[in-house]
């Protein structure tokens, strides 16, 4: 079904070079997304059974904490730098300037992140008891800093992302099955994931310099300031998004202090995220296209956006219904009997693929690609504050079922605000 939808979508594109490039990028990102979620289908059932809910919950909590620093070092460049490189990709010197400035800023943010992270881990008792698992999780931040996914997306060369990411996934998969045999080896999980990320990041940089002939140019303060300003609204949007997505396991750990509950929620969330991820290749593929299209013609951009919305809406509705109906079967197969608590959570969060698809059309492909990143960041920041308020209340009242309900409420709010904000921006 996904292949038929994508074939129809790309048949709507007007010129063949663009169509061919987008279709190739879509295939590459589909393979990447398949690998991203296929590999955990092998490792997740194994890890939850070997580690158990408590240790698996601790690992999920540590990774959620480290992810805040991922957001800081990314600084929204996966959107802003992608857009800048996409617009200027024919100018090799300009691309080198953008690449050098962004990479330099990311390394400065990495140093700042390490200082803050170290202080928290050593001086907060909740973290100091398991230093190894937290620092191993932080290594993933270094790997992500090295991997310029924004460069490959902007150049519309997604096949490189697929190849490099597959390398990291294979490394992690092999290490998990070979070395992790007991619950007390839980710290090795983030270590192997981080090592795979470091390897892929180094390979990616080699490809950038050798295959694309990009030169590192010592950036001026003016150029770095320009990139920081350009990425600010994307960063605030990205940080706000983290509050109501990957932060949920972190918040549950803080509110309840119970790693088992974190484990149950994290297991359910990963399954729903796997279904949501099926839509990501289309979103990532068409974002640079819409960024360029909206700069050329507002009317053409809106016309294509309507067609994309109809196609994605039907597909995402099917995904949500599949999760709702088959939740017990999926939960038992992937998580096992010890995670039966996760099944109601999967059903509660089953509408997310449909809701998130609507948000993506009007926020990412609409507001961000339309150049209205400030409007989009306001929508997401509003939703993040709403989530912080409702999440804590509902979790305290209804435990992790309340957490799942809060996630759905927040995504609904984002979808509604995105629609109204895009309509308002387009009319202006």
Written overview of the protein:
The chain is 86% helix and 0% strand. It contains 17 helices and no strands. The model is unreliable at 1-10 (pLDDT under 50). It is an all-alpha fold and 428 residues long. α12 (259-276) crosses α16 (352-368), α13 packs antiparallel against α14 and α14 packs antiparallel against α15.
Radius of gyration, whole Å? 21 Å
Report the strand count: 0
Largest sheet: none
Instruction: Determine the number of helices (DSSP H or I, runs of at least 4 residues).
Output: 17
* Secondary-structure element order, N to C: HHHHHHHHHHHHHHHHH
**Helix share, percent:** over 70%
What is the strand content? under 5%
Low-confidence stretches: 1-10
Structural class: mainly alpha
> Oligomeric status of the shown chains?
single chain
N→C terminal distance: 38 Å
- Average predicted local confidence, pLDDT: 83
Which outline best applies?
globular
């Amino acid at each position: 079904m996904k292949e038929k939808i994508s074939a129809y979508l790309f048949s709507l594109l007007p010129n063949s070079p663009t169509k061919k490039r987008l279709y190739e990028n879509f295939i590459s990102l589909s393979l990447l997304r398949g690998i991203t979620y296929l590999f955990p289908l092998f490792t997740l059932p194994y890890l939850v059974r070997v580690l158990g809910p408590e240790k698996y919950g601790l690992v999920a909590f540590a990774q959620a904490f480290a992810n805040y620093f991922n957001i800081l070092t990314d600084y929204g460049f996966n959107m802003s730098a992608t857009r800048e490189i996409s617009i200027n990709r024919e100018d090799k010197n300009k691309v080198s300037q953008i690449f050098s400035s962004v990479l330099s800023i990311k390394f400065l943010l990495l140093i700042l992140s390490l200082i803050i992270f170290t202080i928290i881990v050593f001086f907060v008792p909740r973290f100091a008891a398991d230093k190894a698992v937290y620092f191993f999780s932080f290594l993933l931040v270094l790997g992500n800093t090295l991997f310029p996914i924004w460069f490959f997306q902007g150049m519309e060369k997604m096949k490189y992302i697929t190849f490099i990411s597959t390398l990291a996934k294979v490394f992690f998969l092999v290490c998990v099955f070979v070395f992790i045999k007991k619950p007390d080896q839980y710290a090795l999980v983030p270590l192997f994931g981080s090592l795979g990320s470091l390897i892929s990041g180094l390979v990616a940089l080699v490809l950038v310099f050798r295959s694309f002939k990009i030169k590192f140019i010592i950036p001026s303060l003016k150029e770095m300031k320009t990139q920081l300003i350009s990425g600010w609204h994307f960063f605030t949007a990205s940080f706000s998004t983290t509050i109501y997505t990957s932060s949920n396991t972190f918040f549950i750990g803080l509110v309840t202090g119970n790693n088992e509950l974190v484990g149950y929620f994290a297991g359910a969330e990963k399954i729903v995220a796997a279904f949501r991820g099926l839509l990501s290749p289309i979103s990532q593929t068409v974002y640079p296209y819409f960024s360029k299209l909206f700069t050329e013609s507002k009317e053409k951009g809106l016309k294509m956006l309507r067609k994309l919305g109809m196609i994605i809406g039907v597909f995402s509705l099917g995904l949500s219904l599949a999760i709702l109906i088959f939740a017990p079967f999926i939960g038992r197969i992937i998580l096992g009997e010890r995670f039966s608590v996760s099944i109601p959570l999967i059903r509660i969060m089953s509408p997310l693929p449909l809701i998130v698809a609507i948000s993506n059309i009007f926020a990412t492909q609409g507001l961000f690609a339309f150049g209205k990143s400030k409007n989009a960041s306001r929508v997401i920041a509003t939703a993040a504050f709403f989530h912080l308020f409702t999440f804590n209340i509902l979790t305290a009242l209804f435990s992790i079922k309340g957490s799942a309900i809060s996630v759905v409420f927040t995504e609904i709010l984002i979808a509604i605000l995105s629609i109204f904000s895009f309509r308002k921006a387009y009319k202006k």
